[in-house]
Inverse folding.
């Protein structure tokens, strides 16, 4: 309380600034991933940025409680396991203005309907690109050293390698190799950047990129057949679309030079599995496969037992403590939305069909 002889306190510009707006936000994802996506520090920022209603996660959009949440919702903060944001869900969310996805692709749960209603869409795919690109670089380095087949041989024989083991390969090591990057996606671009740490020439194929843009990434743009035929390593970073199905078919796999390495951390259907199996079984090429078609491969599939194939269980993307990057990016996007500034990682309708 101020006494009568105290001078009044004049309002300053800071005092006049309204408190930050906290948009009403609903979390829609599998409850089992929430703590990983939003570790304590990120969760604290989230709660400062948004009015989370209800405080628990919504895993469906049909129950009375979910309908009530959607009715007041301005932002859907989604993640792995989000139910479909279809016309019915959108009809229940008349105030919805943004869908911010704390994971990679939005195509598994969101379609054109959201864009038709003027809803802004954002994705944390850029954050997920970081561990995938790191995994890819490691696969290229280890694969170029023939670490995987030589390790299998070492484990089987329990004796040190011989010079003959190395001489069986057409080349060994990363010095001066040519790496062909298929797809100038977020991951493909980051892989290209990381390849600058190697003494390697980088070729890039993407129908949506020009020579100048490829040059800025430190790569030389080329057509796919030339890339496949002249690269020591071919690494795939294209989306899975009808146009990219079996992008590497029997003919293009046949163009790969003997001893070449194929790395696939994108999607299994980009490669014709039957044709790939033939080329790997012959020993012509090596492969590191984080994804396959089908996934997983049947128990008796020959790729499981080939010494020149290293198969991992779709783990290149964010795992463990890496997952918090996705939540942090999503909260950053939510803060931008609350301030009324453009989203930094918007997913545009015109790009929806050709992105992962």
């Amino acid at each position: 309380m101020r006494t009568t002889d105290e001078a009044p306190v004049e309002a300053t510009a800071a005092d006049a600034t309204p408190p930050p707006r906290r948009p009403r936000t609903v979390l829609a994802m599998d409850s089992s991933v929430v703590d990983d996506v939003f570790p304590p520090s990120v969760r604290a920022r989230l709660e400062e940025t948004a009015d989370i209603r209800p405080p628990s996660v919504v895993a469906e959009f049909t129950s009375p409680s979910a309908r009530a949440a959607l009715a007041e919702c301005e932002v859907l903060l989604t993640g792995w396991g989000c139910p479909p944001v279809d016309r019915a869900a959108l009809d229940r969310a008349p105030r919805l203005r943004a869908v911010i996805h704390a994971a990679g692709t939005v195509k598994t749960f969101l379609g054109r309907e959201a864009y038709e209603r003027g809803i802004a869409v954002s994705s944390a795919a850029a954050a997920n690109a970081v561990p995938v690109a790191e995994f890819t670089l490691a696969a290229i380095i280890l694969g170029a050293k023939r670490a995987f087949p030589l390790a299998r041989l070492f484990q089987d024989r329990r004796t040190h390698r011989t010079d003959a083991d190395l001489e069986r390969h057409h080349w060994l090591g990363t010095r001066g190799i040519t790496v062909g990057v298929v797809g100038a996606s977020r991951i493909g671009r980051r892989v290209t950047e990381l390849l600058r740490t190697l003494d390697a020439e980088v070729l890039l194929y993407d129908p949506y990129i020009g020579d100048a843009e490829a040059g800025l990434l430190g790569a030389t743009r080329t057509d796919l057949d030339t890339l496949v035929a002249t690269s020591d390593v071919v690494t795939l970073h294209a989306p899975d679309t009808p146009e990219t199905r079996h992008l590497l078919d029997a003919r293009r796999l046949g163009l790969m030079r003997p001893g070449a390495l194929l790395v696939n951390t994108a999607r299994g259907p980009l490669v014709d599995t039957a044709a790939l199996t033939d080329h790997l079984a012959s020993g012509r090429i090596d492969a590191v496969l984080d994804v396959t078609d089908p996934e997983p491969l049947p128990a008796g599939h020959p790729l499981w037992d080939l010494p020149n194939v290293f198969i991992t269980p779709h783990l290149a993307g964010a795992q463990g403590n890496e997952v918090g990057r996705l939540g942090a990016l999503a909260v950053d996007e939510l803060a931008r939305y609350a301030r009324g500034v453009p989203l930094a990682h918007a997913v545009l309708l015109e790009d929806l069909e050709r992105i992962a």
Remarks:
- The radius of gyration is 25 Å.
